[in-house]
Amino acid sequence: MNLNLVCIGRKMPGWVEQGWQDYQRRLPPHLPLKLIAMDSSRGGNAKEIQQAEAELLRKRMPQPARVVALDGAGQRWNTEQLAKQLEAWQMDGRAVNFLIGGADGLDASLLAEVDQHWSLGPLTLPHMLVRVILAEQLYRAWSLTQGHPYHRA
User: Fold this and answer.
1) Could you state, in order of their start, the residue ranges of all structural domains in the chain?
2) CB-count burial class (<10 Å; 0-12, 13-18, 19+) for 45
3) What is the pLDDT of residues 124-146, one digit of tens each?
4) Do residues 51 and 109 make contact, with C-beta atoms less than 8 angstroms apart?
5) Contact 117, 74 (CB under 8 A)
6) Packing angle of the helix pair 14-26, 127-145 (nearest 10 deg)
7) Which of 8, 14, 113, 153 to pair with 61, CA 20 to 30 A apart?
8) Is the pTM for the entire model greater than 0.85?
9) Left, alpha or beta for 99 (phi > 0: left; psi -120 to 50: alpha)?
């Protein structure tokens, strides 16, 4: 099963790339984590930018796949709940596309189309940091399902 992070923003600081790659490498071969990044939209107001970025994300998402939006209004999962989600996604067999919007967030029309909404908590996080957090949390969830000592809660 493929895990895809489909997101806005290509040029990331070195620490983001390093953190992303570290956790990406840790995942096993049967759970590859792929980054599909595209440039943010320029020009227009926030709503227009969101709409343009939503079209970019729709065009680049691998199909068929389950789509999970990183959304502040989404479900909050603790590590054990995320591990159960990961197991359920694996049983489903489809790829999972995780969507991260740009600085203005994800467009409401795109949010209405996704299968699940996942919130990392009530804080507003920079989208570049969410990449690293997402990769680490997926690795942590997988390690928990394997009884690996990485997760010590």
Assistant:
1) 3-145
2) exposed
3) 888 889 999 999 999 999 999 99
4) yes
5) yes
6) 20
7) 14
8) yes
9) beta
- Burial of residue 105 (number of CB atoms within 10 Å: 0-12, 13-18, 19+): buried
User: Quick one: which of 58, 76, 80 has its CA closest to 67?
Assistant: 58
Among 91, 90, 107, 87, which residue's Cα sits nearest to residue 99? 107
- Whose CA is closest to 59, among 32, 41, 71, 46? 41
For residue 142, count CB atoms less than 10 angstroms from its CB and return exposed for 0-12, middle for 13-18, buried for 19 or more. buried
pLDDT tens across 40-60, in order?
888 889 999 999 999 999 999
The secondary structure of the chain, three-state, reads CCEEEEEECCCCCHHHHHHHHHHHHHCCCCCCEEEEEECCCCCCCHHHHHHHHHHHHHHHCCCCEEEEEEEEEEEECCHHHHHHHHHHHHHHCCEEEEEECECCECCHHHHCCCCEEEECCCCCCCHHHHHHHHHHHHHHHHHHHCCCCCCCC
Tokens of 67: 């789509």
Distance separating alpha carbons of residues 68 and 149, to the nearest angstrom: 27
